Amino acid sequence: MAQSPIVFDRALLAERRRRARALGPATFLIDRVVADLAERLDAVLRDFAVAVDLGTPTDALRRALAGKTSIGVLVTANMQPHHAGLAVVADEEALPFRDGSLDLVVSALALQFVNDLPGTLIQVRRALKPDGLLLAAMLGGETLTELREAFAAAEAEVEGGISPHVAPFADMREAGALLQRAGFALPVADADRLTVRYASPFALMADLRHMGATNALVERRRTPLRRATLTRMAEIYVERFADPDGRIRATFEIVWLSGWAPHESQQKPLRPGSAQTRLADALGVREIKAGD
User: Fold this and answer.
1) Could you read off the pLDDT of 187-202 as tens digits, one per residue?
2) Strands 185-198 and 128-139
3) What structural domains does the chain harbor?
4) What pTM was estimated for this model as a whole?
């Protein structure tokens, strides 16, 4: 089996997150995602005896779910053992849970930095009991498109070439296909788009640093950016993505994933040709055959 490409420097990512906690983390994005995740989970009328918070970089999700009467034991699985409560040191790329041991896996803004997302989803599905649920949010492909475009244009203009500065996150359709590929039943993927406004591109980059979300790509440039390139990047960003009041826009796309470990009680699609009613009759329209 071919090995997945190594896109992210996971050790550097862990270091960036430690630095963000020391600086004082910027939490507005993860706090919003956690609130939405808790609301989505409230709509699931089920009890979960054993739940795992997988990789969420802060303890916001644990705090939000700690009082949920539908959850028995809540375990935090993270690369860094800084969370309160029951926790295990775990990497999203190598889960330590035995097959069929979990009722619920939740994750907020972590899976976008996994090198082998298909493999991680397969591990999650195996770790879930039959009819267990995965509910996760990750950054999607439209995230920071403005910053990506501004950096590429500035480097091409000033240095005659470009290097990656913003991660190539998966889009919603790709994520939904990966759920099916991993063997989840009733897979659903949807996306929210959040636009955040900043005084300048440098204010955005400061927020990313406080999120622990600055460039952790293996193929990142190893030399400091030239001042001229950085200055031109900021100029291009303002030229293309500023509002009339001078503030710039930054897009964050949140891709939501949900799927169930297969179980015989779940709804299944009808066998092709087994329908008892024609769609045209249900819609009250005249059926036009192919070629007519």
Assistant:
1) 999 999 999 999 999 9
2) unpaired
3) 10-263 (3.40.50.150)
4) 0.86
